[in-house]
Amino acid sequence: MKPKKFDASVALHTPIGIVELFALEDKLVAIQILATGDEASESTGKSKTLAKVEKYLSRYFAGKTATPDFSIELTGTDFQKAVWQEIAKVKLGEITTYAEIAAGIGKPQAFRAVGGAVGANPLPLLIGCHRVLGSSRKITGFSGGDGLSTKRWLLNHEQIDFVDSTSTL
Q1: Are 57 and 13 in contact (CB under 8 A)?
Q2: Which of 10, 88, 118, 131 is surrounded by the most beta carbons within 10 Å?
């Protein structure tokens, strides 16, 4: 989702479509994965951070690991921030579940609320919400890009095995 406040933005063409980056005072504040057919906003302002994020994402899509060397700013409730920080612990090629995140933040019964926070993640691709699966490695919703097809692409890109909820076994 496009942030309310930003002073620089840029749109990138990636294997999953157009990805928009937004910065405020040289901190990354949002990443938006557009759905097929959506048009990118015009780039605005200048930011050294956005150039660094672009390089980081280029490496990611090329299948290379990279360590972020830029600042971020998360805007959300304390609960959302706790969920996003827990997701951020999940490394490239690894997975977690909604229940594991809930337990990790000390609220084991809050797995449904965790799902809402995962869907509100302002920094997908950086905070890998696509790595959050349902029980038994089942693929569940994704709010970025073209939804589940974008999530499938990202999981396959990271060589993560998952159970596709649309398959009939």
Answers
A1: no
A2: 118
